[in-house]
C-alpha cells in the first residue's frame, strides 16, 4: 500500500512512510509493517536514502520508553492510539503513518533523543541480529545491503564519528572486502580518516585491526600503504599494542552480538 505522507524536521532530515505490508508470521497474529525512507534535505537530492521498517507495537514501545525518560519533549505530540479492531483499515494505516512520521521527525530534531540508547537500539538492533546471523554463516553478499543501509541510516541520525556509525562503517568495510565488492578500498579510507579525531577507548580497540585489514585491501597501493604504516608506527610510539592478534570482523561481531542481547 502506497502512503503519500512526508514529515521533515528542522535538522534537515525527512521521514516518509512510502509503503505498508501485511505480515502473517507462522503461529502469530498478522500485523502491518510500515516502511519509512529517511533522507537528508540539502541543496541536492539525497541519492543515498536509508530505510526502516517497523510495526506499530515497536513504535509504541519506543514512544512509551522515551516519554518516561524525556517527558518534556513529547508534550505536544499526538501518538496514534492502540486500536482493538481496524488495524488493517486504510484510514487507520494512513493516520498511523502520519503519527510515526511526526514521532520520527521529533526524534530527528532533538540531539538528546537521537543519541539515546533507546533510539539507537530501535534503529539498528533488529537488522543487526539478522546481519550477525548471515555473517556467521559467511553469507557476506546477503549481509552487504543490510549493512549498507544500516550505515546510511545511522550516518544520517548520528554524527560522523558516533560509536554506532563507526561500527557500521567498519562492518561495511568487512562485508565489502569478504564479498569482493570493490568499494572496500574507498570505504576503508573513509573509516581511517574518520578515526583521526577519535579518542573513545571502546572505539580505538577497532583501529589497529582496521589498519591491518586496510593493508590487505590496499595491497599494491604505495601511497595508502605508507599512510597505514605511519599510523601503526604512531600508535606503537604512544604505547598501544599494534600486533595483529584479532581480526576486525570477529571483534565487531563479538561486540555487536552483546549489544543486541543487552
From TrEMBL:
Major localisation: membrane
* Keyword Membrane on entry: yes
One GO location term (cellular component): early endosome membrane
Q: Which Gene3D superfamilies match?
A: Phox-like domain (3.30.1520.10)
SMART domains from the xrefs? PX (SM00312)
- The reply on keyword RNA-binding is no
UniProt topology in membrane: Peripheral membrane protein
Q: Which residues form the PX domain?
A: 12-130
Q: Where in the cell is it found?
A: Early endosome membrane
Write out the entry's keywords from A to Z: Endosome, Lipid-binding, Membrane, Protein transport, Transport
* Pfam families in alphabetical order: PX (PF00787)
> Which Gene Ontology BP terms does the record give?
protein transport
Record InterPro entries:
PX_dom (IPR001683), PX_dom_sf (IPR036871), SNX20/SNX21 (IPR039937)
- The protein depicted here goes by the name PX domain-containing protein
